[in-house]
Design brief:
The chain is built from ten helices and twelve strands. By secondary structure, it is of the alpha/beta class. It has a single domain, classed as Alpha-Beta Complex (Spore Coat Polysaccharide Biosynthesis Protein SpsA, Chain A), CATH 3.90.550.10.
């Protein structure tokens, strides 16, 4: 039996007071195995640095993706204590990284969504720098606060290449924070960059901002429009195996959006082993006092069409693979890059 009318039927328009959401999937099944023994300590640095560096128009979704009880207790605590953590989604099993992400991505209304691994330390101004690029490049759909000198080599940059070679003023620019590249190498346990990479980035320029060409996806801010181009079916893989390419990178590129990074380095990938410098760096981060949003309005997206995407794909092969040394030499870098 039902008596009366549900009051929500009289006020059925969804309204939100935020425009930027951060989504963090957390998979820490135990704290005893060597791989996971520091994982909770690392995640606490991630969360605390995020709290210190986001503005008041930001909300946070945390996905408990099959965590052990000690980790779940911590996640529940921060959900209860922090008002901006308005979602804690619990799964007793590991849904896989992509499915965990999409459980939040597809159910929220914010036009900007930052996806981050749980081992990222956010540095001051990361959000402002990322949003500045999204504002300055209406064609952009994916922007990371962690630039990489070798991100231009990625396969999912064809729309970005079209922009770079037609209107982006493609050029080499001095690396602003080489220590960011070095820390990333150390965090993944292998060498990625030669000396030239630590000196130069490939950048594109708009009227307002300069951005690095390409980016990784361990932390990146997306326009929500990007995910309209994602696969409709669930991801069948827990992690890697092309899962993030198919559900994060390809939708951005095939949707006609640019893939960029900030010129400076504004976050660190920490890895799974705690080191004393991390705590020292954390203590240096003062809480930023953004009382309201950084963006007044987000410019209407201007993605490229399939024809422009195809041209970008062709140019990527010609200029960035077949004629790379010659073309980069024209741009001023003759050393291996």
């Amino acid at each position: 039996m039902r008596i009366g009318t549900n009051p929500e039927k009289l006020q059925n328009i969804l309204e939100i007071d935020s425009y930027h959401r951060v989504v963090i999937p957390v998979y820490i099944p135990n704290l005893t195995e060597d791989y996971f023994k520091d994982a909770l300590k690392i995640f606490k640095l991630c969360f605390e640095s995020l709290q210190k560096t986001i503005h008041s128009k930001t909300r946070i979704s945390i996905i408990n993706n099959g965590c052990c009880d000690e980790v779940l207790n911590y996640l529940t605590k921060i959900y209860n204590v922090h008002e901006n953590v308005d979602q804690l989604l619990n799964s007793k099993i590991n849904l896989g990284k992509v499915n965990a992400l999409y459980s939040a991505i597809k159910s929220n209304l914010e036009p900007l969504i930052t996806i981050t691994d749980s081992d990222v330390m956010f540095l001051p101004e990361w959000q402002q720098k990322v949003e500045n690029i999204l504002e300055a490049f209406p064609e952009s759909g994916m922007v990371s606060p962690v630039p990489s000198s070798i991100a231009y080599k990625g396969e999912f940059l064809y729309s970005t290449i079209y922009y770079a070679l037609t209107k982006g003023k493609l050029q080499f620019t001095n690396v602003k924070h080489p220590d960011g590249l070095e820390k990333f190498e150390k965090s993944i346990g292998r060498q990625l960059y030669n000396q030239t990479h630590k000196e130069k980035y490939l950048t594109v320029t708009s009227k307002k901002e300069k951005a690095v060409l390409g980016c990784g996806h361990f932390v990146a801010t997306f326009k929500a429009d990007v995910f309209n181009h994602a696969p409709k079916e669930n991801c069948k893989l827990k992690i890697v195996g092309g899962s993030e390419n198919n559900y994060l990178d390809k939708p951005n590129d095939k949707g006609g959006f640019l893939r960029l990074a900030t010129h400076g380095n504004y976050a660190y990938h920490l890895g799974n082993i705690f080191e004393p410098w991390m705590e020292d760096k954390m203590n240096e981060i003062n809480k930023e006092t953004h009382s309201n949003e950084l963006l007044n309005t987000l410019p209407i997206s201007k993605p490229y069409n399939k024809f422009q995407y195809t041209i970008g794909k062709t140019w990527h092969i010609i200029f960035f693979k077949k004629l790379k040394s010659f073309y980069f030499g024209i741009k001023g870098v003759k050393k291996p890059f």
